[in-house]
Amino acid sequence: MANPLILEQVVKEFGEKTAVSEISLQVEKGEIYGLLGANGAGKTTTMRMVLGLIYPDRGQILYHGKPFGDELQRGMGYLPEERGLYPKVKISEQIKYLARLRGMSASDADKSLRYWLDRFEVPEYYDKKIEELSKGNQQKMGFIAAVVHKPEILILDEAFSGLDPVNVELLKETVIELRNAGTSILFSTHRMEHVEELCRNITILDRSKTVLQGNLREIKKRYPREEVILHTTSEVNGLEQIEGVKAVERKERGYKISISNVAAAKEILRKAMDESEVEHFEIMEPTLNQIFIKEVGESNE
Ligand SMILES: Nc1ncnc2c1ncn2[C@@H]1O[C@H](COP(=O)(O)OP(=O)(O)OP(=O)(O)O)[C@@H](O)[C@H]1O
């Protein structure tokens, strides 16, 4: 069966401005796909096209192998970056209304809404208005509005921004549960650690263009390891003098050392073992944050 969501060379222009140029990607069933990029890179525009809110100028978007149609909208959920719910309407009214629009029966919509309010430990919000809630709690209601009808494809644009750490964890757990239940999730964020935790495949956009794409594990393997973490029982002198060592940072429990080649790492370990006792030695994989800055930073220079 075709993947739930496929973008093929999708282009969007606003007048002279190309917001998205030839993006291609595929989101599989039960995966969280990361869409990353600096401000203005084209993430929201891409998501709005996936939702059928705006149309591509070229290329195509396929849902289970088919182009966009009314019935498809029912299978999608969207948490917009900006808040999308009416401030003065009762939460239960508007979320149930949205669920019914997307094909749920009144009783299923009610059941599902109550399930989610309980899940987020705020059953009393059923009778409240959005304007009565804090910003973070409004965001949680936006999330419920996106998932209340059990969509197959879920679009999350900066879903965790503005939430406190406890609520970030809560939403993260929920997103993982939805993925495990088979939901295909297109996820945009500026928080690289969330991508590292959640996403299998990623696309990094830079000023409308795809600059990096693929499986996150494999991408990380392609980048050189340029950092060593070393913990020893006593001080090790002269690490800076080793060939290939670029910088040595003293940390609470040892050293963080930037290197330009693997030979330097071996030499660091040898010296540390000669002069002290090594408690921990690790040649670190680059973080996604470092990769992002490398790709997006360099092309902006
Ligand atoms: N309706 C529009 N009319 C004209 N230009 C637009 C429109 N929507 C987006 N753009 C432009 O397209 C580019 C991509 O914008 P988009 O909102 O997709 O970026 P983004 O990656 O979501 O950024 P951010 O991280 O800041 O949310 C920007 O330069 C933006 O100014």
Automatic annotation (TrEMBL):
Decide whether keyword Transmembrane helix is in the record: no
Q: InterPro entries annotated for this entry?
A: AAA+_ATPase (IPR003593), ABC_transporter-like_ATP-bd (IPR003439), ABC_transporter-like_CS (IPR017871), ABC_transporter_ATP-binding (IPR050763), DrrA1/2-like_C (IPR025302), P-loop_NTPase (IPR027417)
Keywords, ordered alphabetically: ATP-binding, Nucleotide-binding, Transport
Pfam families xrefs: ABC_tran, DrrA1-3_C
Residues in domain ABC transporter? 5-232
PANTHER family in alphabetical order: ABC TRANSPORTER ATP-BINDING PROTEIN, ABC TRANSPORTER ATP-BINDING PROTEIN NATA
> Under which name does UniProt file this protein?
ABC transporter ATP-binding protein YhaQ
Which organism encodes this protein? Paenibacillus segetis
GN (gene name): yhaQ
